[in-house]
Design brief:
single chain; alpha/beta; Ubiquitin-like (UB roll); Rossmann fold; 2 domains; five-stranded mixed β-sheet; four-stranded parallel β-sheet; 18 helices; 33% helix; 15% strand
């Protein structure tokens, strides 16, 4: 890559050719404010139309100001980001955005976490200077997962880029004209009637509260105040390494404090979704081996992620016979709570309510699917995100950092290290390989790490030799990468035996319900590293070695992948329209 030498505010900068002024300025720690520009997961989230016009700078030799996010650097370029003209322009653009934006900041979902609000404060804007022609759009919570409030849309179009270019789902585009222009699904359809997969990545990049999750916090508080119900909570693997970020504990395992905090909120039992993950591996590994031995359809695809499952239902319906039929880990644990646990402890399933704390807003949609029920009971009643749990802890006045470390409740609080790595890309398939290898060979796996499936590359491949057979593995995270793999399968160009797909870039550690980080890839790496550290320090690191899981099969389920397991732990998929 050729280099370009320039100066920014008199400071010499050597940048790569093709780099924008905004990115070049960051090389010398000069931050140019932006709203439409964002770098995330090394993908340049750049709106080349420079729609917000907040990043205007002066370039010597040019009469007009230039948008820093869309202007490429060149040799001997001289840029000034802090002139009176540039700052005035910046302030005017934000004032114009505010003129057409609701002013209900105190009750806004993103209050104190809104980039428009922060930018206005940084520019010293204390009043609405202009009167805009504010349109009134209908709010949409039809999916019970994704909440869309177009009244707060500032037309930065980050969501459009994320949805169309990164995730390749294709829901959003600019509709209407002039002042009425807004980013929306085609024909203004409710989200539930579109092919949206509710991955929530649009909420991660939206700078305001135009896109957020549908909050279930009030419903959970109501449950906790009802003495007639037995309220159980479970927590996903990724939560334990992201919840602490709110409390300056980045990249740390806060499992013990998390359990203690949930008890302080009033939950009757605190179970671990990791238990469900271990059960998932037992079932998926049996299903994989059954397909290998009996000539079943390969490759088998993991099915833990509801966003990616909905993606294949819409986009690749002719491939619906290849995903594993296993329910996702939190649905499995919810099912077992209302059957196995209820029977074991003599609790009426009608009185049990299961709340899942997830890194994902698609789980909110997943629990609404009609097939996620058993004998008239929803497998999981409510889902709250990591962000919503932080809100509840704040509302309850809980001093998280001072809490003691406590253990999960039994019988579904015991797990192996294999379950912990479910939270990051490559983790599910690595956990499955640990079990599949031992069951196919009858030999103990001394070295349990399969490092070739680790890392944040969008597409990964690995070949594992088992019983003399080369098992080829594919791993994709981010639905754009998933599309590449699925296209190869559909065209008969792939010879994989098993594939893991996670909808969100990075996997669950960067799910749509996780703490906002706005492109901080180093933080995402810390999250992944923390999960691998938890796994490494666990005494048991293979799902089939979990003694509580063994007891579950002995006492209740019978044979893995058997009749009872199929009835309770497996599901089906259906073709969906492409709208």
């Amino acid at each position: 890559m050729s280099k370009v030498n320039l100066t920014i505010n008199g400071m010499p900068v050597t940048a790569e050719k093709g780099m924008t002024i905004v990115d070049a300025a960051r090389l010398v720690n000069i931050e140019i404010p932006t709203l439409c520009h964002l770098n995330i997961h090394d993908i340049k989230m750049v709106n080349r139309t420079a729609s917000c016009r907040v990043c205007m700078v002066e370039v010597e030799g040019r009469r007009n100001l230039a948008p820093g996010c869309a202007t490429e650097v060149f040799e001997d370029m001289k840029v000034h980001t802090n002139t009176a003209r540039a700052i005035k322009s910046r302030r005017t653009m934000v004032e114009l955005l505010l003129s057409d934006h609701p002013t209900d900041c105190l009750v806004c979902e993103r209050n104190n976490n809104c980039q428009l609000q922060s930018l206005a404060a940084n520019l010293g804007i204390r009043k609405i200077k202009y009167e805009g022609a504010m349109s009134e759009y209908k709010k949409d919570s039809s999916s019970e997962a994704l909440y869309r409030n177009s009244n707060k849309c500032i037309m930065c179009r980050r969501c459009e880029t994320m949805c169309n270019e990164v995730q390749t789902v294709g829901i959003y585009s600019a509709v209407d004209k002039g002042f009425e222009t807004v980013v929306s699904p085609a024909f203004g359809l409710p989200m539930i009637d579109t092919q949206c997969v509710f991955c929530g990545q649009c909420t991660q990049v939206c700078p305001t509260a135009a896109l957020t999750e549908v909050s279930h916090v009030a419903k959970v508080w109501e449950l906790l105040g009802d003495e007639d119900v037995h309220v159980v909570v479970q927590t996903a693997p990724a939560i334990r390494v992201t919840l602490g970020e709110k409390y300056d504990m980045n990249g740390m395992d806060v499992t013990g404090k998390m359990v203690a905090a949930l008890r302080r909120l009033g939950f009757d039992r605190v179970f671990d979704t990791n238990f469900g993950a271990d059960v998932t591996i037992v079932e998926e590994a049996h299903e994989f081996i059954d397909r290998i031995k009996n000539g079943g359809r390969l490759p088998i695809l993991t099915s833990c992620c509801p966003s990616w499952v909905k993606f294949i239902e819409h986009q690749f319906p002719n491939l619906l016979d290849i995903p594993s039929t296993c329910k996702s880990p939190h649905i499995i644990l919810g099912t077992l709570t209302k059957t196995y646990y209820a029977e074991k402890y003599g609790i009426d399933p009608k009185k049990i309510r299961m709340v899942s704390v997830m890194p994902c807003i698609a789980k909110k949609y997943e629990v609404m699917r009609p097939e996620m029920q058993h004998e008239g009971h929803k497998n999981v009643d409510h889902v709250i995100t990591t962000r919503e749990l932080v809100q509840m802890l704040t509302e309850a006045g809980i001093d998280f950092k001072s809490l003691p470390d406590e253990d999960f409740d039994h019988p579904m609080g015991e797990s192996t290290g294999a379950a912990d790595i479910f939270g990051t890309t490559g983790g599910v398939i690595e956990a499955a390989l640990r079990t599949t290898y031992e069951w196919l060979t009858g030999e103990e796996l001394k070295k349990v790490e399969f490092r070739k499936v680790r890392g944040l590359e969008g597409l990964k491949e690995a070949t594992v030799k088992i019983n003399g057979q080369k098992i080829k593995i594919g791993v994709a995270h981010g639905l754009g990468n998933a599309r590449i793999l699925l296209d190869k399968i559909q065209e008969g160009k792939a010879d994989y035996h098993a594939i893991e797909i996670m909808a969100c870039p990075g996997g669950c550690i960067d799910g749509g319900g996780q703490p906002y980080h706005m492109g901080n890839i180093e933080l995402v790496k810390k999250r992944a590293a923390a999960l691998y550290k938890i796994d490494k320090n666990k005494p048991l690191r293979k799902s089939h070695e979990n003694p509580a899981v063994k007891k579950l099969y002995e006492e209740y389920l019978g044979e893995p992948f058997g009749e009872v397991a199929h009835r309770l732990l497996h599901t089906h998929f259906e073709e969906r329209d492409r709208i």
